[in-house]
Amino acid sequence: MKVPTTPARSSLPGLLLTLLLSACALGPAPRPELPQPAAWQAPLPHGGSSEQLGQWWSRFDDPLLEALIRQAEGANPGLQQALARIAQARAAAGAAQGGALPQLGLGGSLNRSRAAVPSSEGPRSLGTVGLDASWELDLFSRQRLQSQAASERAAASNLAWHQAKISLAAEV
Q1: Beta-carbon contacts of residue 126 (< 8 Å; ≥ 6 apart)
Q2: Whole-prediction pTM value?
Q3: Who contacts 146 (Cβ-Cβ below 8 Å, separation ≥6)?
Q4: How many whole angstroms separate alpha carbon 137 and alpha carbon 15?
Q5: pLDDT value at position 89?
């Protein structure tokens, strides 16, 4: 009695196809929504606006206090650093979002050469122009998550600036 056998090669394409399709299903696990501490849920006293912060301090009806706060804000390096971090984080967020877009590149060159033996043709010119286009598929959400993280860092930098501004005004 002969037992029918199937060659291992016939199941190999099916196995590879299964692995390839299962790889498409891989991705980041959904992030659970974590409860935020009560301190993070408290609104800023100025609603995130510098104008409203100035109006909040004007409730004390003390022009000297307002002048001192403006003077301290103008001379405080911590606020300047916080503003620089905001600009840096926004630039990083823009760069991260740009990574998901198609990329185009244009290049060119021009070469002039003379023959070693003089000829009636004179110098020769050779010019080339090239255009490159590429786009990376975001199968595993790497670019989307990097963009989201960069946006969150920009928002955190903005909150750090507000915190520095409020702390400075409170100290004055």
Answers
A1: 110, 111, 112, 113
A2: 0.55
A3: 96, 99
A4: 24
A5: 92
User: What is the C-alpha separation between 96 and 92, in angstroms, rounded?
Assistant: 6
Residue 3 has pLDDT above 70, yes or no: no
* Res. 98: pLDDT tops 70: yes
The arithmetic mean of pLDDT across residues 129-158, rounded, is: 87
pLDDT, one tens digit per residue, over 39-63 is 555 566 666 666 777 677 777 788 8
| Residue 132 φ then ψ, to 5° | -115, 135
List all residues 6 or more positions away from 102 whose beta carbon is below 8 Å from its beta carbon.
Answer: 133, 134, 135
69, burial (CB in 10 Å: exposed 0-12, middle 13-18, buried 19+):
buried
Between helices 50-57 and 142-171, what is the axis angle to 10°? Answer: 20
With 0-12 CB in 10 A as exposed, 13-18 as middle and 19+ as buried, what is 19?
Answer: exposed
Reading the block at residue 75, the tokens are 């001379």
Instruction: Name the amino acid, one letter, at 158.
Output: N
Q: Is 19 or 168 the better-scoring residue by pLDDT? A: 168
Amino acid making up residue 11:
S
Cα–Cα nearest to 162, from 6, 35, 47: 47
Count of positions (residues) in the chain: 172
Q: What is the 3-state secondary structure (H, E, C) of 96-165?
A: HHHCCCCEEEEEEEEEEECCCCCCCCCCEEEEEEEEEEECCCCCCCHHHHHHHHHHHHHHHHHHHHHHHH
